[in-house]
Amino acid sequence: VSAVTSDPSIPLQILAGPGSGKTRVLTSRIVHIIEHHGILPNEICAVTFTNKSATEMKVRLTASIDPERTSQLILGTFHATCARYLRRYASHIGLPNNFTVQDASDSQKLVKSILSSFSEQLESLEAKLDAKSCLDMIGKGKSMGKTPMSMEREAKVERNPVTLMVSRIYAEYESRMKATDALDFEDLLLRGAELFRQEPWVLKSIKHIFVDEFQDTNVTQYGLLKLFAKSSGCVTIVGDPDQSIYGWRSADIENLSHMAKDFPKTKVILLEDNFRSTGAILAASYAIISQDQTRHAKGLIPFHGSGSPVVLKRCATEETEASFLASEIKRLKICTGLEWSDFSVLLRYGALSRPIEQAFQRAGIPNRMAAGHKFFDRVEIKTVLGYLQLADNPNFSPAFARVVNVPKRGIGEKTLDNIISSAQAANVSPIKLSRRGKCTVKISTAARSSLDQFLKVVDKLKKLADEGKTVGELIEVLLKEVDFEKHWKDDKWEDRLENIMELVCFDSPRLVCSLPSSSILTFPPSSAWPFS
Q1: What is the Cα–Cα distance from 226 to 259, expressed in whole angstroms?
Q2: Residue 143: which residues within 8 A CB-CB, separation 6 or more?
Q3: pLDDT digits (tens, 9 = 90+) for 350-382
Q4: Residues 365, 372: contact at Cβ < 8 Å?
Q5: 354: which of 262, 333, 375, 456 fits an S-S bond (Cβ 3.0–4.6 Å)?
Q6: CB-based contacts of 312: which residues, under 8 Å, 6+ apart?
């Protein structure tokens, strides 16, 4: 109650743990200030970190005050809020109101084109600098308020040639965007801050600023908060320092301390009642997080009972761990009557799903990968397995169809269909029909040459497999022989490679090629799958 009704003229920090109802408290405080302190909705700015959070807050506010007043609130993400003001007042800082917001893919294409003009300088660098890594460095620099000139000065002081090169690319990047009246997402914050500093009157109507998930704010975003609160000094932030996980993208947890100094009368209220988790889970999490001696002291008080104790299970191998998970889920389902959908398994990263998926399949536990593909459904895994399957069984035409044009070899869909149908008519494998001197399908000279290279790779893998090479060794050879990175020209190559290397870790002297032809996910019953 005190968090909702606290005097709005006093800066307020609401530090709330997970499951403590902080979104409800934030929206309730906005309603309270409107209805009891005479502040109009259009005099309140509420900033969230995601559009989803903004939508949720709008729905809750609409349920408490009428839709018309809710629509008058300045409510949205930092980027959307700045864009809203820039669309109206951009001309005051020499920017046309109809500027274009450039998305991430457009930015990456622009940096890539700039890199080509720096090719000679890039060759002298020992470190590899691609468009994505360069854009990441530019974005991080912007989030910390760095200009191309300040980044260049910093690089010279640190004698860092890579940062120096990025600073020059950054300058050209800014120049080209300016020529086309474009801004990227970081520019929305930077140019917004520029507008508010040069023309503070545009924020004069704001009498209270709210910021959700304050622990995730960076230097630029905290600067925006100060600009919004400059005339009134009225600010409410909600956050949980224990959930600050975005340091890698320049979030600054010290902003909590900065706020206490910049707003000397700041009041701190702790929300420690947890309505989401059991006491056992909260006790375990607190035992871990409380070891951080620098954290802001706060606890979590369970609303529910203690519940089942948390279990720490140590396993010798990932396969043993996966088997334990499968058996424990089946046991709990039988004992408690829970449904399969009541269980979830959290992973550090997607590539770890492979042994768990296998264990679940063997145990007959239905499962799906949330926010991603199943391990064996991923295109890079199906491609690698396709090559290995052909090395073991050249007659397996689905694998041939899947990988013969990966990377692109100039073999069109019609030509591929003709090869497979001709092979079926001749009662031979597509690979055998494709060999020089035996192919009855018309193929261009360039495609013929590429097809020969493909067959050479498959033959090499088969020879090594016959010599007893392990799956891991075969995959490593395949990665050297085939330029998959060039084929998958996207920003996910590192993730794809990580998944492929997970296959390498699952080593065995025999191939994965005994997988049923109907589907990679149709597992045979053998406990030794997939090397039965």
Answers
A1: 9
A2: 186, 189, 218, 219, 220, 249, 250
A3: 778 889 999 999 999 998 877 666 677 788 888
A4: no
A5: 375
A6: none
